[in-house]
Specification:
alpha/beta, Rossmann fold, 2 domains, four-stranded parallel β-sheet, 11 helices
Length: 269
């Protein structure tokens, strides 16, 4: 039996090989907003909560992990500064982003927000930037809140930095609570019942305008709205505030009331 004839490219008869097929492009999964997020190597939570809080058509976030020490101390937090720019550079190189977020509350406080923004702008000049504490301040202003109850997982020396930084920005912190856990990997496993109970206890104090739960490893984002109903006061957390701030900085104003009062509000003037 004779062999089947081959095409001029060496393929067997009947093989179809079409090249240079015409196509069009659109905005991709980030047609409305592309958000870059620097995530701690030890963080268990932020990407999970961002997938919930940023679940809007045409909105996407892209993450890169920054090496850090799971032991949360002022020294280990400060040690991250030199790695911020190289990590920011890993997120969609050469592609424009609408917002770049640095996902560590306590390090943003230890380093200072401006230092974080400066490191990001070394490789992403001009991009809008945020951190969890930057976003929290924007949330407090949106709420019109001055007296803040703060809950953290941190040890005492980090807690002192957190309280001092918030008060230095012009807010009052008359109520402060902490789980006093130094290990990021343990803090990420504090259960939601414990978090919700502690936040509700602190927020119930007379004179408190809002509750802030600090640390991107703490799981409160999707529960903020429920907790607000329980205590009758606005509630936000590091991830909850930062995801909202990313959306608003990117020009996304969609209301998501299921995530609480903040997600119905614009950026403050």
């Amino acid at each position: 039996m004779a062999e089947a004839a081959s095409t001029s490219t060496g393929a067997k008869a009947g093989f179809v090989n079409r090249t240079h097929i015409a196509f069009k492009t659109d905005g991709g999964v980030a047609g409305r907003a592309a958000i870059g997020v620097i995530v701690l190597a030890s963080d268990h939570t932020i990407e999970h909560e961002f997938r919930q809080l940023l679940a809007l058509p045409g909105v996407a976030f892209y993450a890169a992990r920054i090496r850090n020490d799971a032991q949360i101390t002022p020294e280990t937090l400060a040690d991250m500064e030199s790695r911020i720019a190289p990590t920011a550079e890993l997120i969609l190189p050469g592609i424009g982003l609408d917002v770049m977020a640095y996902g560590c509350t306590s390090a943003s406080i230890v380093l200072g927000e401006q230092a974080v923004f400066d490191r990001i702008h070394e490789v992403r000049p001009g991009v809008a930037c945020t951190t969890p504490i930057t976003a929290a301040f924007a949330a407090f202003d949106a709420f019109g809140a001055r007296n803040i109850a703060v809950l953290t997982p941190y040890r005492d020396d980090v807690n002192q930095r957190v309280r001092g930084y918030i008060e230095g920005a012009g807010y009052n912190v008359p109520v402060f609570g902490s789980f006093n856990e130094e290990d990021d990997n343990v803090a990420a496993r504090i259960d939601q019942k414990s978090i919700r109970s502690a936040a509700a206890e602190l927020g119930a104090v007379d004179g408190i305008d809002a509750v802030f739960v600090s640390c991107t490893g703490i799981r409160l984002g999707a529960l903020a709205g429920q907790l607000e109903e329980e205590i009758g006061k606005p509630v936000t957390s590091s991830n909850h505030a930062m995801a909202w701030h990313c959306l608003r900085l990117a020009g996304i104003d969609d209301a998501q009331p299921e995530f609480g009062k903040l997600y119905t509000m614009p950026l403050p003037d």
